Each structure stands twice: as C-alpha cells, then as structure tokens.
Amino acid sequence: MKINWTITKKRGNFRPSLNYKITLEAFEKELAVNAITLKSTIPAIPDPHQGFCLPGTNERTSHWKASDFHYLSVPYFKRGEASGFIRLPFRESREYPEIAASFQTLREEYEAVVRQAYGQEPLHLEDELEMSRGTKQEIAATITAATLFNNFANRSRGQTPMV
Questions:
Q1: Does 130 fall in a domain?
Q2: Number of domains in the chain
Q3: First-to-last CA distance in the chain?
Q4: Is 137 among the domain residues?
C-alpha cells in the first residue's frame, strides 16, 4: 500500500487542506484483502465547509478542543485506489503531526490484515473415485453373464461379438 498526502494553505486566515491518495499494490489486490477503516486522530473542525477561520472563532479560540475525528479507510481490493480531502484546523504552529501518525496507524493495521491473508496458502486438490471392489465383486457375475449372452446372441445373428 502506498499513501501520498499533501497539506496546502493559502496565505491569510485560510484553513489548510489535506489531500491524500491510498493505492494498493498488485499483490494486495490479488490477496483479496478486506478494506479497513479506523478513527484517526485528525480533528474534525466546526464549519468544515468554510475555507477560512477568522481569529477568535471556532478552532482559533483558546477554549476550542476537538471532539470529533475523521475516519480513514484502505480502499476495497477490487477498486485498489481511494483519495480524500479533509479541511484541517487553522494552527499558528502550522504543524500537523497527527496526519503522519494516523496514516502510520492505518498502514500498521492494514499490514496485519495482509499478513493474515498471505498466511492462507493456496490449494489445489484433484481426486477420483471408482466403484468399490466389493460392489464390483457383487455384480461381476451378472455383468459377465450378460456380456456372454449378448455375444452368443450376436453370433447367432451373424454380428461381431462385443468385447
């Protein structure tokens, strides 16, 4: 699995944006690994539809504390790719360590699922059953008599005997 992300912010009171893309590798798709979802430590902000946050409002107040967090998901194996957009809280520090930490946790949990799926060895069985020896012995006399009778009947009519 490959995870790429970018955080961008315009100058001024604009909130930063996180754009990310998660791509499964070919062998992960071939394993049919189920998608996982986890609650990240990336805070959900108030009024996420607003691309800006003015001083003294929402996350730019001294008493604001995140109460909800975003979910991150690994894509379904048949799709193999997912992307997302999250508007991040405005921070004077411009630091977002929870982004890398959340993707790291997602990767670790997914890798555990991949290892478990990889442990399921492939299987190819072929077998065959024939009539049991006991049944063959029980019906052998009847089959032999019928074959001999057919051969005798065919000979008397001038046909080639059955073998």
A1: no
A2: 1
A3: 65
A4: no
Distances (CA, A) of 91 to 43, 53, 102, 163: 12, 10, 18, 94
Tell me the pLDDT tens digit for each residue of 112-141.
999 999 998 999 999 999 888 888 888 877
CA distance 69 to 65: 11
> How remote is the C-alpha of 129 from its chain's centroid?
38
Residue 115 has which token pair? Answer: 């290892």
| Token pair of 74 as six digits | 């690994």
Contacts of 124 (CB under 8 A, 6+ apart): none
How far lies 114's CA from each of 25, 35, 41, in Å?
11, 10, 23
pTM for this structure?
A: 0.76
| 42 within domain boundaries | yes
In whole angstroms, give the CA distance from residue 114 to residue 88: 30
DSSP E strands in 33-99: the ranges are: 37-43, 69-73, 81-87
Query: What count of other Cβ atoms lies within 10 Å of the Cβ of residue 114?
Result: 18
d(CA 112, CA 133): 50
* Locus of tokens 């478990």: 116
